[in-house]
Amino acid sequence: MAATVHLDWCAIQYNDPEDDKTTLRKLYEIKDPIQILKKLDKIAGNLPAETDKDIAGKALITDILSHIKSLCDPDGPNFSEPTPKQYIYRKVNKKPKDDKDKYYCPLNVIDNDAKWRFNGFPISHKETEQRKQFFWAHVDLLGLFFSKLGPAPPAANRYNFFLPLTAVYARWSVCLIKKKFPSPAMFQCTWAEPDISEKKQSQFSLGASLGGFHKKSIGVNLSLTRFNLLNQFRNITEISIKNWKGEEKPWGFDNSQEEFWAFGNCAETYPVLQLLSEVDETTKTYGFALRKAAVDDVTKRDETKSLAYYEDKMLERSDVTPSGDYEHRYLAPPCGNCTHLINVVAQADLTLFTPADQFRDPVEFNPPDN
Fold first, then answer.
1. Which residues partner with 116 through β-bridges?
2. Per-residue pLDDT reduced to its tens digit, 305-342
3. CA distances (Å), 343 to each of 237, 275, 297, in order?
4. Which residue of 15, 145, 233, 316 has the smallest Cβ count within 10 Å?
5. Does residue 124 have a pLDDT over 70?
6. Contact assessment for residue 145 and residue 61, using Cβ atoms and an 8 Å cutoff
């Protein structure tokens, strides 16, 4: 089988005196938090600023990076205060604890007029139809940083670009969170592939499940606030849900299709909001989720191994299902909640988000270095 050679991502190659080319493999090898932030600085600084569109895009990415830094330890002001320290924009909850309020937390995420936000971009968007999207976690802002460097290269596909890019995002997210904090369990990539005749490049979005927070101080409030983001997603509030018990229920935080987590917890939250809010008939939308275990096993096995080595591991097949199909060890299909968002609400093709369908044929990822 022919080897898949990684694409160099043009958006991160500009004027870097230390690298002739910046590849995703090279980025994956960076794991020290200080070096990650320095590389993000260099990526933002090297972006072109020749046109008004370039200037606006560079300003947005620079702004996103400033907020990532503000939430990073040890010196980020929004990481340190208010205590306890965590990687979330937050404020002290001034309301007294009410035993009847099952969602009470000592800390709340910051109000909509104070936390960081940007105008979302549905695929078939018009300036007057842009939606506000809000961010509280530095790993979500990191996903936004990468997403706004797009579109993807013209020849990008799930093997040579989206999977390695998601691996870089996952590894850097985990490296930017101290071990005493929970890291996201899942990282998700969604991309919109226009009709070939349109000669447009794919837009993409990266997201992570909840992570980087102090559970007792803000956990439920963070989950609830991310759930509230989904209220703007198409006509979701009008569609009933079958909860995990199989009962027909209205849209609501407590009416999840999963027993152990609510809508808004999942890595699909921001990608779905950004790329499935409006989809025209000429656009196909794809996606997959990468388990944190892929990053964990990199560290456990050998930190010196490269991304090229571990991509083969990410595509490992594990258990065969009763239907005779196979499952992936590190790539996960949409959960019940995400299936509702993707298939029921957005009416997108669920098979395009299922690893067993999208990564059916193994690909040799580790070509010899030339």
1. 135
2. 556 555 666 666 655 444 444 567 788 889 999 999 99
3. 15, 14, 31
4. 15
5. no
6. yes
Closest CA to 191 of 284, 106, 127, 104: 284
58 neighbors 47 (Cβ within 8 angstroms): yes
d(CA 161, CA 365): 11
What is the length of the chain?
370
Q: How far apart are CA 33 and CA 255, in angstroms?
A: 38
Distance between CA atoms of residues 256 and 295, nearest Å: 28
Spell 171-188 as b/e; 16+ CB within 10 A means b: bbbbbbbeeebbbbbbbb
Give the contacts of 18 (CB within 8 A, at least 6 positions apart): none
131 burial (CB, 10 Å; 0-12 / 13-18 / 19+) is middle
**DSSP assignment of 301-322, as one string?**
H-TTS-HHHHHHHHT-EEEEPT
Sign of CA dihedral 66, 69, 71, 76: negative
Partners of 91 in beta bridges: 108
**b (16+ CB within 10 A) / e for 256-278:** bbbeebbbbbbbbbbbbbbbbbb
Residue that is written with structure tokens 């690298």 in the block: 19
Joined tokens for residue 17? 């005196």
Instruction: Please give the DSSP secondary-structure letter assigned to residue 185.
Output: S
Question: How much is the CA Rg of the chain, to the nearest whole Å?
Answer: 20
The first and second tokens of residue 305, run together, are: 């191994």
- The amino acid at residue 261 is W
| pLDDT, averaged across the chain | 79
Find where tokens 């936004």 sit. Answer: 144
Helices and strands per DSSP (H, E), number in the chain: 12, 12
Distance CA 7, CA 171 (A): 19
In sequence order, the 6+-apart residues with CB closer than 8 A to the CB of 3 are 364, 365, 366, 367, 368
Confidence (pLDDT) at 127: 37
